Amino acid sequence: MAWLFYILLLMSSYDEDEAFEAAAAPTSGQHRPSLSQLAMQGARAATFGAPDTSYLDSLNPAQREAVETLDGPVLMLAGAGTGKTKALTARIAHLLNTGRAQPREILAVTFTNKAAREMKERVAALMGQDIEGMPWLGTFHSVCVKLLRRHAELVDLKSNFTILDTDDQIRLLKQLINAEGIDEKRWPARQLAGVIDSWKNRALTPGRISGGEGEEFNGRGVRLYAAYQARLQTLNAVDFGDLLLHVVTIFQKHPDLLEQYQRWFRYILVDEYQDTNVAQYLWLRLLAGGHKNICCVGDDDQSIYGWRGAEVGNILRFEKDFPGAKVVRLERNYRSTEHILKAASAIISCNKDRLGKDLWTDETDGEKVRLIGHWDGEEEARWVGEEIEAMHSGVSGFAKRRKNPRSKTPDQEFERLTKGGRVSEHVAGDIHQINLQREQALSPAGVGNYKIPQSVGLDEIAILVRASHQMRAFEDRFLSIGLPYRVIGGPRFYERMEIRDAMAYFRVICQPDDDLAFERIINTPKRGVGDKALQEIQIAARSNGVNLVEGARIAVADGLLKGKAKSGVAQLLADLDRWTSLNVQQIRYGVEDEDALVEDVAYEPAEISHIELAEKILDESGYTKMWQNDKSPEAPGRLENLKELVKALEQFENLAGFLEHVALIMDNDSGNDGEKVTIMTLHGAKGLEFPVVFLPGWEEGLFPSQRSMDESGTKGLEEERRLAYVGITRAEELCTISFAANRRVYGQWQAQMASRFIDELPADHVDVMTPNGLYGAQGNMGAGRSLDDYGQDSSPSRFQERAAKADVYNSPGWKRMQQRTSRAGTPRSPVTIEAKATVAFTEGERVFHKKFGYGEVMAIEGENLTVEFDHSGTKKLKAGFVLPADQAGDVPF
DNA sequence: GAAGAGTTCGTTTTT
DNA sequence: CGAACTCTTC
């Protein structure tokens, strides 16, 4: 067998002599020094002369203190927009520069890949060099995967274990619940997954679950948890929670190993410490236990992931955990104007249990936070759309007043406005000679001097919502007015069906114990393997104590399968064997030498590249053909996605490496494809900033969310309040909060009350607008439809009840707004119109169906029609589902 | 095994 | 209301 000759690839070996040479000689273009080599320079410089510490000069005193306190525990309390990443990266540079640590001796953990990436880039920029030398800068999960692959056998796993995502997790739990004879309806797998996750977040293994907790899930939670863990082990798989938990277990059981890592990781840095859960906290405490050189950065006011197991307590308790810790507060904000900061501070100060920070800024002028109420959710969306158009075209007052537009040059500004015009000469100030290349709405065509209005770019604008269903109204509206937008946080590439199918093939190749993947592909594409055949295979596997692939082999050999199933499975097995023999296997992971951890990976030699193999698999399995033969409108898109998938493989050494990437990196950045307004949730916006931010839907029950308050009481409310704080502090120049008096909730109209957070806004920093405030005399309220359609019980009157106590309600603006909303009419209680009129059809009549489109009635049997649709073939359906074609215009679709 | 009928249940989400 | 799921029927 050819692959007996293993190649050992040293991924990042460290050669001291080379480092010395590099430090001594000026570097040439080809041979640039690595980070470790630079660190050596630092070490030498520390001995023989001053290292270059110019990165310290741009830090403010607080940042500088946080950067220069290198030894011992440090807690950096960094408010929103206070330059925390800057401080963190400068600190890493300083550690290297002062010769305190080699790049591989620094453990730096973040929560998201994005944050990790940014940190790598910025450290690299500071050090003027590539990031190769920092192997332990990454997310908690990616660092844990590396550790766990090295020591998998200590928790009875093989180092090529699979990482299951939530989907696999649920499917597995479903199987277990059914096996226990529990009604999956009453005790859904989702819920069990939630319970198990919360146990894992708190580092509770099945054996450690105490009395009361055992009652979870109908008293069978613990047993199912144990069964689940056992099943994961036979599948040689882990879930996300396990990545941390297994490593914690290993460290707890093997003090000698822990000690080794404590020595290896001389300095630890943690980003977003307020988001750590118990397992992560234990993990950090174990690793920092020796030297206590740990620097945690966080903001208790931005802790918004409590519902996912994050413990604000971790950050509140830091000084107790690490006595003598240095606490540094970063309070100078470089992002927002004073009005925005004051509004955010006023809200967050209503929370108890804070470490307390006061953000301040030099940016004293700017726009007040705007507050506006609307009649209903659709109107809110319409207003926001019009505001954005006004800003974008430079018509709005804000766009004109704006001091520091982000757009860099008049050319860009003009190109944005005209989509193609060019500035040919800059005359003076904002007057430019312009050569218009085609008809422009903005100005007459031709060459001439024009004043370019200042405008707001669409990608400077974000709409941040509490719940994703709020996005719908904005999407609908923006679609109809043709405003480009981008939704962040939709369904992700790697969660699509075709991608998961393809990856299931790769998974079986890389890790034959992955039964979940095998189940997924055994009849995809169709091989005539139904439930019965699968059952036979499962029985064969179980009774022989082998995985499903081997079980299938036995089932075929013993003649347990018949007909199509038999030949189908046999063919699949032969294919799998062939593909497996072509796969580049990773054979060893992680080798250490005496006093350093050398990250290395060993591979078998490849006969064909993993990319060719992937194409071969998709092709020979018939999977590609399956979609080619598919007539559904999604099919071409899916084939396109498969091509994308193969392309993505190029960046990886082998299939296994790719699978790991996919499991850990759910890339959500859907590229910068043009200038668009961003629509996203408040959670998704953490860490981001935008010049202009809209915060719609500030209504009781929606924000703060009812469920949050029901489930977690005051704690929940305080987390919602932190979310409000996060939202406001995303804005740099202009922040607009809005709410609607009426909103459709699950199809029912509901009168809404303004959010209590609105009561907490400081009137001095808020500009209360009337609904038709900024532009034109035509109020939105009356535009285009009769508001008398709404009935009784005006919710604006409910606002009145609270008007006395809240700051903002005493402003003239609020009173004007209130007048308008009440004059416009009062909301009507919901009326559901049962419009199920019986319609008689005749043969040959043209009809319309919501899904199938237009067609012709071919035959009638009582209620049942046979309709030949223009584009969807002939169908039999009940008369109630189609309309006469001439009435179809009434049906929006 | 696919189409269509009926049912249920509705936050936030990274890894 | 509408997506996602299951159940029914051919």
UniProtKB/TrEMBL annotation:
Domain UvrD-like helicase ATP-binding: 57-337
Record domain UvrD-like helicase C-terminal: where: 338-687
GO biological process terms on file: recombinational repair
Keywords, sorted A to Z: ATP-binding, DNA-binding, Helicase, Hydrolase, Isomerase, Nucleotide-binding
Annotated positions binding ATP: A78, G79, A80, G81, T82, G83, K84, T85
Top EC class for this record: isomerase
Gene3D superfamilies with a match to the protein in the record: 1.10.10.160, P-loop containing nucleotide triphosphate hydrolases, PCRA, domain 4
GO CC, any one term: DNA helicase complex
Annotated EC: 5.6.2.4
Catalyses which reaction(s): Couples ATP hydrolysis with the unwinding of duplex DNA by translocating in the 3'-5' direction; ATP + H2O = ADP + phosphate + H(+)
InterPro entries named in the record: DExx_box_DNA_helicase_dom_sf (IPR013986), DNA_helicase_UvrD-like_C (IPR014017), DNA_helicase_UvrD/REP (IPR000212), P-loop_NTPase (IPR027417), UvrD-like_ATP-bd (IPR014016)
Highest rank taxon of the organism: Bacteria
Record-level Gene Ontology MF annotations: 3'-5' DNA helicase activity; ATP binding; ATP hydrolysis activity; DNA binding
Family affiliation: Belongs to the helicase family. UvrD subfamily.
Task of the protein: Has both ATPase and helicase activities. Unwinds DNA duplexes with 3' to 5' polarity with respect to the bound strand and initiates unwinding most effectively when a single-stranded region is present. Involved in the post-incision events of nucleotide excision repair and methyl-directed mismatch repair.
Protein name (Swiss-Prot/TrEMBL): DNA 3'-5' helicase
